[in-house]
Amino acid sequence: MSNEVPDMDVEDIIRRLVSNRDETFFVNTTVKVIAVERGIREGDKWSLGSITAGNVRHKEEIKMKFRVNLWDKFSPLVNELANGDILNIRKGLAKNFSFADRGFPQINCDDKYGSEVKIEYERERIVVDGSNVAWMAKKEGKPDIENIEILKLELERDKYAPIIIVDASLRHNVPESDKERFEKWVEEEKVIQAPAQVRADDAILKFANDRGLKVVSNDTFRDYEDVYPWVRDKSKRIPFNIIGSKAILYFR
Fold this sequence. Notes:
The chain has 252 residues and is of the alpha/beta class. The chain contains six helices and 15 strands.
């Protein structure tokens, strides 16, 4: 394996791996995320799979399906990726994954290789207090997860990429008829569930604070004003309403 790290286009990487299935090499590259398959986990590390990537250096979008694995410190990025984002990868390990006598090109990003991964977001991220949303309009006297779907679609129409965080107790409180659907959301990372020992408000505000993001919630978070003074800024918290199948967001 060469110690040099070349800058290569996606199609050049794949062409090189296809021509020599046993070769491995480090590479710097940039790809556009067209589609992301979530919910893939290998061991205790995340593996981000089945990205359809476009070569961003060309005017014409070249779509190629290959695998990008994000390990260890890069694994949280899985929850933040959305279609249209740009992944800038430095010192990713390019190799083939062999299965059924076929080679599947992939790039592995791991701190132990000295990899670097940066995201250029196409749409603005925004954090959603998922439990607060679910309790807004109840179903059978219990939280209605359909509210989350309604709000998510409205935010996406407004060109946001919502990151939905819920507390660990929500899965136990939803109506029985919605539990299978909700469990699938958690498994596929459509919603991020806070650890059982962590309050959802703590997880939401820390996530938003670390990334400078707005929060969609009807909770004023007054108990957190000393820790996160920015919650007093009305432009940082977006109240909402759910009326039937329509979400109304009150941006300021």
